[in-house]
Give the backbone structure.
Amino acid sequence: MTKCGPCGKEFKTFDEYLDHKCEKADGYTPRDKEYVIKTTCPNFDKVSQSAVERGKVKKEKKDKKEK
Amino acid sequence: MSATVVINEYNSAGETETANISNSNMGSADSANLDAVANPIVPGENSYEKWQKIVITAMGGSSQLDNFKVWRTGALGGSAVHLTNARESAYGGAETFATPVATDSSIATETMPASEPSGANLGIGGALAGALTGTGSSDYLVHQIQTDAGDVAGSTSTMNYQYDETA
């Protein structure tokens, strides 16, 4: 059983949870980043950008090493 | 576009999954998003273990997520310790869920880092070098606070969960 933390609705499967439109997230589903921004992590865009930047730096280092 | 990432918590013998938790409050109850004031840890006792995962619900066009790190910032009260299964070396692999306990954890035995670890300390598929190329999750992160009888209730610290994302 999976319970959506923000709206409290319970789902038999994780996929059902992923597909639900969360009322606490203005109808966005857990697959949408807005679901996170509107419920638990308002600065998720910044978190995400930092993660992408770290990944970019790591990939550049890896590519450089392979050349 | 980028991946959508949440923290999920697992509680009770039935492994009830609470998705997208809003906090990681530690206390004397085995529940997600618990009220730490209503469920304080009695000095000398432990919090219930937390069983959590970093979960990717959508890749958002990215190709890979890896290098999962967890750590705590902020001091614990008195001589309390915060222990975890997360570690950069001698990682024990993916844990199998067991009902969270408030006795001394046999799984959370390493001190939770108080600053960003230099490398991954939470695995994917049982390995620190693991990566996700589609939706999925980290291994279980298990952590627990163990207090001393002389400790004072009410410390606040922050759990940090970090990942790298390759577009």
